[in-house]
């Protein structure tokens, strides 16, 4: 059982940022309106996610830490009907198998919270915990017992940047939720919930983009592309500032990245990249978003149509701006 969990953990938890992604997605799935993330040394020394969501009933907390225990599959197990970010029930047990995990939670109708500690797959202790409604998960000593893996971690700085990137992308998808990020006791950002997507995106991307970008709003057949894209004069040396979303989920898809590059081809100097946030919406039957959720890969039924939509939308938007 432990070995199985550790193997699964390799898939889910490559580095602090991948554990963090799972925890924040769980907080979103729990209908939270406020999510606080605290990191120590890029998450290598600690990851803490606190939400005000529905919580986990005390008698289900052990189960939540077991493999393939999910509360998110519809009764008929129809994966197509899943609207949550998770449904595999692998994240918590995987993380708990390679770290020390403290899970505290309280539902709206219970008088107090409950706390369970699991250390590298071994139950340590549980008991009552004072807690407002919601869930608090702390992950310490990630990979401390797996030196071979710990060795592969990069500097705290680069782990931090990867964590920041994960939070930034998820925060862009849910401007209705308040997000705060702290690193080594320092407030990185604090965003109010209930703001427009435009405001949320602007708050998270380079502020100077505002005067150097166009709004993208484009519809073709059943596909829609919305967002903000920089003028070719405003660019970066790395493609890190391209935030791409499919049906509300952050993705890092080759086809989309290639399409963006094609749209800006001839407009940008070599090795320059536009800064943009683009939200593609299309019917669920035209895309498989769960090919490799951890890696953000998707598969489109008609990739040519997607490519042509993106190139067309960007070209038209950039032309309209009078460039
Ligand atoms: P999945 O998200 O695929 O269901 P996880 O391993 O990520 O699996 O989580 C297991 C279960 O624990 C979830 O199905 C959910 O019931 C519960 N859970 C985890 N995190 C939270 C949270 N922040 N708030 C409420 N419930 C949670
Ligand atoms: Mg999950």
UniProtKB/TrEMBL annotation:
Keywords: DNA damage, DNA repair. Signal peptide: none annotated. One of its GO terms (biological process) is mismatch repair. Residues 201-319 form the DNA mismatch repair protein S5 domain. The keyword Cell membrane does not apply. One of its GO terms (cellular component) is mismatch repair complex. GO terms for molecular function: ATP binding; ATP hydrolysis activity; ATP-dependent DNA damage sensor activity; mismatched DNA binding. It comes from the Bacteria. The keyword Oxidoreductase does not apply. Coiled coil: none annotated. This protein is involved in the repair of mismatches in DNA. It is required for dam-dependent methyl-directed DNA mismatch repair. May act as a 'molecular matchmaker', a protein that promotes the formation of a stable complex between two or more DNA-binding proteins in an ATP-dependent manner without itself being part of a final effector complex. Belongs to the DNA mismatch repair MutL/HexB family. This is DNA mismatch repair protein MutL. It comes from Zymomonas mobilis subsp. mobilis (strain ATCC 10988 / DSM 424 / LMG 404 / NCIMB 8938 / NRRL B-806 / ZM1). The gene is mutL.
């Amino acid at each position: 059982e432990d070995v199985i969990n550790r193997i699964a953990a390799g898939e889910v938890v490559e580095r602090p940022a991948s554990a963090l992604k799972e925890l924040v997605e769980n907080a979103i799935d729990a209908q939270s309106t406020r999510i606080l993330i605290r990191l120590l040394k890029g998450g290598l020394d600690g990851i803490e996610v606190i939400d005000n969501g529905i919580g986990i009933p005390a008698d289900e907390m052990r189960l939540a830490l077991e493999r393939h225990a999910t509360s998110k599959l519809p009764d008929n197990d129809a994966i197509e009907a899943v609207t949550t970010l998770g449904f595999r029930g692998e994240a918590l047990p995987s993380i708990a198998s390679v770290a020390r995990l403290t899970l505290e939670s309280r539902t709206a109708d219970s008088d107090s919270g409950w706390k369970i500690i699991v250390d590298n797959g071994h139950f340590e202790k549980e008991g009552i915990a004072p807690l407002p409604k919601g869930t608090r998960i702390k992950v310490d000593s990630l990979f401390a017992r797996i030196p071979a893996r710990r060795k592969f971690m990069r500097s705290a700085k680069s782990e931090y940047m990867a964590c920041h990137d994960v939070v930034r992308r998820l925060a862009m998808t849910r401007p209705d939720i308040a997000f705060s990020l702290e690193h080594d006791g320092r407030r990185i950002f604090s965003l109010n919930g209930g703001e427009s997507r435009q405001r949320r995106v602007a708050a998270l991307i380079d502020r100077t983009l505002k005067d150097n970008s166009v709004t993208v709003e484009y519809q073709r057949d059943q596909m829609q592309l919305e967002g903000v894209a920089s003028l070719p004069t405003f660019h970066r040396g790395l493609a890190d500032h391209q935030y791409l979303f499919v049906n509300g989920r952050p993705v890092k898809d080759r086809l989309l990245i290639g399409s963006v590059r094609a749209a800006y081809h001839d407009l940008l100097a070599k090795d320059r990249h536009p800064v943009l946030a683009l939200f593609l919406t299309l019917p669920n039957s035209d895309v498989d978003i769960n090919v490799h959720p951890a890696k953000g890969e998707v598969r489109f039924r008609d990739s040519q149509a997607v490519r042509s939509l993106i190139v067309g939308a960007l070209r038209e938007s950039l032309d309209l701006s009078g460039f």
